[in-house]
Design a protein that fits this description.
The protein is an alpha/beta fold. It contains 17 helices and 8 strands. Helix 2 packs across helix 5, helix 8 packs across helix 17 and helix 11 crosses helix 15. It is elongated. The two termini are 48 Å apart.
Length: 479
């Protein structure tokens, strides 16, 4: 079976227009090239491929920025004294001359690459005013007689000149224009990029349609994996249980140490989940310039046990949407009046690491007779955990690999709390689906390193993961 050759696309444009940034986003390679606010960062032609179905579907050429198109256009015009050369012939005559290896060396690299490809993306910084140098660039690139697809970049920035650029491009016959922000791509922009290219490369339409379909499949696959990873976190946290003697609980310093240890264990699990989501979406956890998150600059230190976060989580659950039994004194009632002593009085003090979800009544009674207290993770904390990860997931899905700003470290429950119950319920359903884990402390990954072998646990994880799409939709409606 023969496979089509990769489509060759040169990425061209003025210096610092965002060419390398665009390629990082299209290939999900945050480590490709160098992105900088300084002009002329890319000095050589660099190739990178987009893989589809395990094969190279597109071979991109990242080219240097055009710096002096006005002078080069005048030089090339002077080469055709009799005026009998076609535009591509004039370009080739220039490339054969000494200036292509001298004063116009950077521009020559761009034009040489353009003559060897099937098409080109003309990347334009839409914030720039339409100056004569840009008209000269369009004329030079057009002289290479290759299909040009303009890509308007940085459209989310204030003060863009989109209308003026579209007018200029239309004057040169470039009527198909893609709106694309490499730092924060518009929904569907990447897919539309290839479909618009198919109008210019009709003989490659089937190949380009497959690329667009693959992007849709890849998005669904990543979201499914992300949903399962978040479900793993919730099941793991719900299964967590720490025991301590009554004597330890009576000593305030000992009690605080036990609670702090549980809180840290929860936080560490959440950070590992976030790191896995970063890797899934092709970001580097410790890169403070390319794809940073608040954790890198010391801001991503959300306290899942903070009273305000727990209060908001309780509001998000709402009346009639509660997940499980309440905490503290209600647990006493479950023990037919037997007091939990210090355990019941700790409610607000331990901020969620409470004696909730102890499991079967028999274990509670045994522990009571042994003067053993248990700490578990409260439902409200699970709500905060889920909200935190879901907001991160949404941010990653809307983030280009050229972004240099940090994802905002908002409180996970900062969405309006007066939304209809239908909008709040998905969060509660997520936590409710994880409840079976409370009866299985052995499901905690720290308690049993081989918990992945338990089929019952896996079934619960999948049931929780099935609730993730509805929760994401609820967040999108509230955004």
């Amino acid at each position: 079976m023969s496979f089509p050759e990769p489509i060759r696309i040169a990425v061209v444009g003025h210096t610092n227009a965002g060419k390398t940034s665009l390629l990082r986003t299209l290939t999900r390679r945050v480590d490709f090239g160098e992105v900088s606010q300084q002009p002329g960062t890319t000095r050589h032609v660099e190739a990178i491929e987009l893989q589809v179905d395990g094969r190279a579907a597109v071979r991109f050429l990242d080219t240097p920025g055009l710096e002096d198109a006005v002078a080069l256009r005048e030089h090339i015009d002077a080469l055709d004294e009799r005026g009998d050369l076609t535009p591509p012939e004039r370009i080739r005559r220039f490339l054969a001359g000494p200036e292509a290896h001298g004063v116009f060396e950077q521009e020559a690299k761009v034009l040489r690459a353009l003559l060897e490809v099937d098409a080109a993306f003309l990347v334009i910084d839409a914030r720039e005013p339409v100056l004569p140098k840009f008209r000269a660039e369009i004329e030079l690139l057009g002289a290479c007689a290759r299909p040009l697809l303009p890509v308007l970049n940085f459209l989310r920035e204030a003060g863009t000149r989109e209308a003026a650029w579209k007018e200029l491009l239309s004057a040169y016959g470039l009527h198909v224009v893609v709106r694309f922000d490499a730092a924060a791509p518009f929904v569907g922009a990447e897919r539309e990029l290839y479909r618009d290219l198919a109008t210019l490369l009709r003989e490659r339409r089937a190949q380009l349609d497959r690329i667009a379909a693959f992007l849709d499949e890849e998005f669904a696959r990543r979201r499914q994996i992300a949903g399962e990873r978040i479900a793993e976190l919730l099941v793991d946290a719900a299964a967590m249980r720490r025991t301590a003697s009554a004597v330890e609980f009576e000593i305030e310093s000992s009690r605080e140490r036990l609670v702090a240890a549980l809180q840290k264990a929860v936080f560490d699990k959440a950070q590992r989940c976030a790191s896995d989501l970063l890797a899934l979406y092709g970001f580097r956890e410790n890169d403070a310039d390319e794809a940073p998150l608040p954790l890198i600059e010391g801001r991503w230190t959300m306290d899942f046990f903070h009273p305000e976060a727990l209060k908001d989580a309780g509001i998000l659950l709402g009346k009639g949407v509660a997940v499980g039994a309440a905490v503290g004194v209600v647990a006493d009632l479950a023990l037919a009046g037997l007091s939990l002593g210090a355990g019941a009085a700790l409610g607000g003090a331990i901020g969620g690491a409470l004696s909730q979800g102890f499991g079967p009544l028999g274990r509670k009674l045994v522990n009571k007779l042994r003067d053993v207290h248990e700490l578990t993770v409260e439902d409200r904390v699970l709500v905060v955990l889920a909200a935190w990860q879901l907001k991160l997931l949404r941010a990653l899905e809307q983030r280009g690999h050229a972004a240099v700003d940090r994802i905002a470290a908002h409180t996970p429950t900062d969405a309006p709390t007066d939304r209809p119950e239908a909008a709040r319920r998905p969060l509660a359903e997520l936590v409710r689906a994880a409840q079976p884990a409370r009866s299985h402390p052995d499901w905690d990954s720290e308690a049993r390193l081989r918990w992945r072998e338990a089929p019952q646990r896996r079934d619960v994880v999948l049931r929780v993961a099935q609730q993730v799409p509805a929760a994401i939709q609820a967040f999108e409606r509230a955004a």
